[in-house]
Design a protein that fits this description.
39% of the residues lie in helices and 28% in strands. The protein has ten helices and twelve strands.
Length: 251
């Protein structure tokens, strides 16, 4: 059995790790490279860096950061945020990122998934899907959750995998920020219909939530931000707790 993974997510604005609400009132919380090294020492299996800088200049800063992270980090890391074409994806992968993640751009241009996976391999491509539960269906959202794409979660996930996605990162917008637990029913259904690993995001609040996720929902990994950044949950302690309860993790 493959070990379950714990993945902190860091939002980066103009080269600095930031916190905020819907990208408003951003404040610096640390150097991305040093935070990455800290999480690696603490036992994180991977990291995700999301570029939330809107300008092309911000994009250049992010690529420079990726090179620095690649030099210093000894665990895999994924990068994303505003990747809209293969040249941008290539620049990030060539800078040293282990994977890239696509969200809105993949919806607008599904062929981009195939293009990148053919050039680099499906293991380099993570498709992130944000979804809300509406009228008894999980509907895909884009543009930071502001646009309803009239796509059903399960159908889009299957298509993304068929086009070459190596992993699916599913965020329940209904659970995100609530600290009430992951969307286990949706995750269970998703894991049954796609062949690729599923990363769960949205709803982490306690160590029990992670245990339930891995015991009952079928997810391969869990991604979280605030509970790790705020030290509400310490990754090393979480891994010990999961291990004591029969979940295989990398200790």
């Amino acid at each position: 059995m493959v070990a379950k993974r714990l993945i902190p997510c860091l939002d980066v604005h103009e080269g600095k790790t930031v916190k905020g609400v819907n990208f408003v009132n951003l404040r610096e919380v640390g150097d991305p490279v040093q935070m990455g090294k800290f999480y690696a020492r603490e036992g994180a299996d991977e990291l995700v860096y999301l570029d939330i800088s809107a300008t092309k200049e911000g994009r250049k800063t992010f690529i420079t950061l990726v090179r620095s992270v690649a030099r210093e980090l000894n665990i895999p890391f994924t990068v994303g945020g505003g990747i809209s074409d293969i040249d941008h994806a290539s620049a990030l992968l060539d800078a040293g990122a282990d994977k890239i993640t696509l969200n809105s751009a993949a919806i607008c241009n599904p062929g981009l998934i195939t293009e990148i996976s053919k050039r680099y391999g499906s293991q380099f491509v993570v498709v992130a899907i944000d979804a809300k539960f509406e009228q008894n269906r999980w509907m895909v959202m884009s543009r930071g959750g502001t646009k309803d794409e009239s796509k059903i979660l399960s159908e889009w996930a299957v298509e993304a995998c068929e086009r070459g996605a190596g992993e699916i990162l599913f965020t329940s917008m209904d659970h995100d920020g609530t600290k009430s637990g992951f969307a286990c029913e949706a995750l269970s259904d998703l894991c049954k219909i796609i062949p690729t690993p599923v990363i769960a995001s949205g709803g982490a609040g306690t160590m029990d939530h992670f245990l339930t996720l891995f015991q009952s929902c079928g997810a391969d990994a869990a991604l979280a931000a605030s509970v790790f950044h705020n030290r509400e949950i310490v990754i090393g302690e979480l891994k010990s707790y999961l291990h004591q309860n029969g979940i295989r993790v990398r200790l």
